[in-house]
Amino acid sequence: MIEVKNLHRHFGGFRAVDGATLEIETGSITGLVGPNGAGKTTLFNVVAGVLPPTSGQVFMAGEDITGLPPHVLFHKGLLRTFQIAHEFSSMTCRENLMMVPGGQTGETLWNTWFGRKRIADEERALKAKADEVLEFLTIEHLADHKAGQVSGGQKKLLELGRTMMVDARIVFLDEVGAGVNRTLLNTIGDAILRLNKERGYTFCMIEHDMDFIGRLCDPVIVMAEGKVLSKGTIDEIKADERVIEAYLGTGLKNKEAVG
């Protein structure tokens, strides 16, 4: 699905991404882990068109998408969420979802005058779809709540719901579990697994919770100092000496040796 070739993103003399090469296979839930400053979010931002690369290439299903802006990638089915949810706080959760699809009839002044029936029909269909998404995510009880007033974990679910309002092919999740309690984290994990298995979503996710990564992801890619350090199953990653040194810490190795 996604192929990244020798990608660089520099900020002055700092090489945030320094020759990273990786693949995200269609139908996978790929984990991206590494210490703070490893270049994970910068890599996401370059792939998703938020930042242009200094050099290197990004391909999606064989098409060169290097440097394409987010709105173009959105229409190709590449979406991303953010560590801090970006909701429309004064709108309801349902309305937040209904806002997502582009090219809606009511977006033009002409149609607001002469296309009222079409607008009404479209809004009914969007409302029905939004309600279906909220039910899928088990937050249908929040449909009429202001999005700015729900919990952090529920906002993360709402962000996931936005990807369901369009034909997403691959979704990049940036620390979807950050600041989320364990119960809601399990709900988010269940939703990701169902979207993957039932609807064919491909995911790539940055996450620091290794238990969460272990439950969802295969393979797991480890980054360090802007480069790809290792790739494998969660067990292979945990046993990799380079990963233990660079990310997990020598304490884990010593603990497992004692245990």
UniProtKB/TrEMBL annotation:
Matching InterPro entries: AAA+_ATPase, ABC_AA/LPS_Transport, ABC_transporter-like_ATP-bd, ABC_transporter-like_CS, BCA_ABC_TP_C, P-loop_NTPase
Pfam assignment, any one: BCA_ABC_TP_C
Organism field: Marivita hallyeonensis
Listed PROSITE patterns: ABC_TRANSPORTER_1, ABC_TRANSPORTER_2
Keyword ATP-binding set for record: yes
Domain annotation ABC transporter: ranges: 2-250
GO cellular component, as recorded: plasma membrane
MF terms in GO: ATP binding; ATP hydrolysis activity
Gene3D superfamilies in the record: P-loop containing nucleotide triphosphate hydrolases
Name of the protein this chain belongs to: Amino acid/amide ABC transporter ATP-binding protein 1, HAAT family
SUPFAM superfamilies: P-loop containing nucleoside triphosphate hydrolases
Domain of life: Bacteria
This protein's record includes keyword Transport: yes
Record keywords: ATP-binding, Nucleotide-binding, Transport
PANTHER family in the record: CONSERVED COMPONENT OF ABC TRANSPORTER FOR NATURAL AMINO ACIDS (PTHR45772:SF9), CONSERVED COMPONENT OF ABC TRANSPORTER FOR NATURAL AMINO ACIDS-RELATED (PTHR45772)
